[in-house]
Specification:
The structure is a single chain. The protein is of the alpha/beta class and 184 residues long. It is 32% helix and 9% strand. It contains seven helices and four strands; from the N terminus they run βαβαβαβαααα. Helix 2 links the parallel strand 2 and strand 3. It is globular and about 40 Å long.
Length: 184
């Protein structure tokens, strides 16, 4: 399926009327199972952060499935498990720091495990305490608002480098997927 990423955490009611985003949702819904297209076989979705947007999408585009965004920074396993229980989400992406919490992940039911999608290749510093603020800064900037945040992570002066992803303790490689995650 295809997914739109609408993970801005700073949305307000006025943003819900954005013409281009609504047109995209309508197009994605047309291609969705039970949507308006005659030859549909796959349901499309939206990765979402804002509760305001969750409610809006459920009401206006009910044939799109919803994915709870990693931008919520769900690092507490209990909070993550509560998110997994929410019926409105077909998938939930936990913070990458929960990727290797195997003892806790094993406590989920099979139905709950089927809803979990992992962010495999995160570049952010594993010990970051400002991740949520960083996502909020990006959200503010995307709305044209003046908001500055400067990362305090070690080596942050080098910027957000994808080449560092495989060094991250939360990294999930192909062998991890085949030998650990799929068998779980």
């Amino acid at each position: 399926s295809a997914r739109l990423t609408f993970s801005n955490s700073m949305l307000r009611k006025a943003h819900l009327s954005d013409r281009k985003c609504n047109e995209l949702c309508a197009l994605f819904e047309q291609g969705s199972e039970d949507g308006n297209s005659e030859n549909n076989s796959v349901k499309n979705g939206v990765i979402v952060h804002s509760e305001l947007l969750v409610d809006y999408l459920k009401q206006n585009y009910p044939n799109l499935y919803l994915v709870s965004s990693t931008t919520k920074v769900l690092t507490d396993f209990h909070e993550f498990a509560e998110e997994v229980k929410r019926e409105e989400f077909q998938y939930i992406v936990p913070d990458f720091r929960l990727n290797k919490e195997f003892d806790k992940l094993k406590t989920l039911s099979e139905k709950q495990k089927d809803k979990v999608e992992f962010l495999c290749n995160e570049c952010c510093w594993f010990g970051c305490k400002d991740r949520k603020v960083c996502y909020e800064a990006v959200s503010h900037k995307n709305l044209g608002e003046d908001f500055e945040h400067y990362c305090k992570a070690p080596d942050s002066s080098g910027g957000y480098q994808f080449s560092k992803a495989m060094e991250n303790p939360g990294f999930i490689g192909v062998e991890d997927i085949k030998n650990t995650y799929l068998p779980m």
